[in-house]
Amino acid sequence: MSRYSHVRSYQSLITPFYADQVGSLLRSEKLKAARLQKQNNEITTEQLIQIQRQETRLHVEQQKLAGLTVITDGEYSRAWWHFDFLEGLNGVDGYTPEVPLNFKGTKPKTHSIRITDKISFNPNHPFLRDFEFLSSLLDPTQHVAKQTIPSPNMLFLRGKNVAECYQDNEGKFISDLVQTYQDAIKAFYDKGCRYLQLDDTSWATFFSEEGVSGLKELGYSTEKLLAIFEYLLNESIKNKPEDMLITMHICRGNFRSTYFGSGGYEAAAETIFGRLKVDGLFLEYDDERSGGFDPLKYVTRSDLFIVLGLITSKSPELEPKEYIKSRIQEATKHIPLEQLRLSPQCGFASTEEGNILTEQEQWNKLKHVVEIAEEVWG
To answer: Where is the Cobalamin-independent methionine synthase MetE C-terminal/archaeal domain (predicted)?
Structure first.
């Protein structure tokens, strides 16, 4: 019997979503001010949550006005797209490393995570509460609530097995990590989540010589780490119910309209496109950093949808519609049109600082995605 068999049936998802989004949205000035007040102990946690919810209500309506079927909470309770979720797991703590991540032209705040004890999913994880609130704002016959969390590969690569219980026992670490994510997926499903996106910058490690050199310093060959990533992802999602979509977004970094990596998908294409069991893949394709569409030839499943991130979230200018349509047509040399989707290449605020554009320009971008999708797919 499935571990999900006791869960009552929900209405099927309204699919496909030819116009989609990655998830994060620019924080309003009111929300930024409230987060600063909380840091300075000028307001309580509950007061901050109330302000987050007020802003979420407003921005959910803006997403609806843009024409989106898929709605997110903008990741308004987070400072980072990944650390907040990972630090909410048992056995994971945040800390300040000596060296920040190196983005092209700028540096984010210095922060990271480490594993301090046996890892497991916290059944009281605050993201569950956030998802319930988002769901309460939507009519499920009209819109779908999308939850975003970092991929298990992010904890494997960023956290490393430094806890004493995992010393010299990578197999135990991987096993616990898989169980943690299986439990997380079940918990979100139990709260009504039917669309979960796993965000993952770790694949970009394989896309450049610089990234591969870093792997060697960690003691991994490309082949070994590809195999670990494939196993972690597929095992983590293997128990997902049939009425739940799980997708993965692959990114090369997104901070204040900058990035940390470049390179096409070729080096990991056979694994990403041919062996992962996700329902869909969100791919960066907004500029030359991501290479061409040739790696899509490794897609072997007719039920795998590919979301082309052709609209950039890094700048306010609207891409010419005919140019985007021509790029979609170019991709059909490798993938049938009915398997393709359209979205921005990343979120608008992977960290609370946000990319360099205004909220109105952000809404214009999302409306642009919807309009182009309607013209292409009808």
So the answer is: 173-374
Is residue 296 domain-resident?
yes
**Closest CA relative to residue 156, chosen from 140, 137, 171, 139:** 171
Residue 20: inside a domain: no
With contact defined as beta carbons under 8 Å apart, do 206 and 222 qualify? yes
Backbone torsion region of residue 366, taken as left when φ is above 0, otherwise alpha when ψ lies between -120 and 50, otherwise beta: alpha
Q: What angle do the packed helices 359-377 and 321-331 form, to 10 degrees?
A: 50
- CATH value at residue 155: 3.20.20.210
Cα torsion angle, 165, 170, 172, 176, sign: positive
Read off the amino acid at residue 96.
T
SS3 3: coil
| Residue 21: pLDDT over 80 | yes
**Residue 16 located in a structural domain:** no
CA distance to 52, 256, 304, 351, 356, per residue, from 111 (Å): 23, 16, 35, 12, 22
pTM, entire model: 0.91
* Of 206, 212, 115, 118, nearest in space to 155 by CA: 115
Q: Pick from 15, 7, 22, 1: which is nearest to 186 by CA?
A: 7
Phi then psi dihedrals of residue 344, to 5 deg = -65, 160
Alpha carbon distance 233, 258 (integer Å): 27
The pLDDT of residue 131: 98
Q: Where are the beta strands (DSSP E) in the chain?
A: 70-71, 90-95, 112-120, 144-145, 147-150, 195-200, 245-250, 280-284, 305-311, 340-344
List the Cα angle 234/239/229 in 5-degree steps.
15
All residues at 6 or more sequence positions from 107 whose CB lies less than 8 Å from its CB, including other chains: 100, 101
DSSP 263-318: --SGGGHHHHHHT---SEEEEE-SSGGG--SGGGGG---TT-EEEEEEE-SSSSPP
Report pLDDT digits (tens) over 312-348.
998 999 999 999 999 999 999 999 999 999 999 999 9
Fill in the DSSP letter of residue 80: B
Contact 205, 151 (CB under 8 A): no
Please give the residue range of the domain that contains residue 33: 29-377
Structural domains of the chain, count: 1
Position 6 in a domain: no
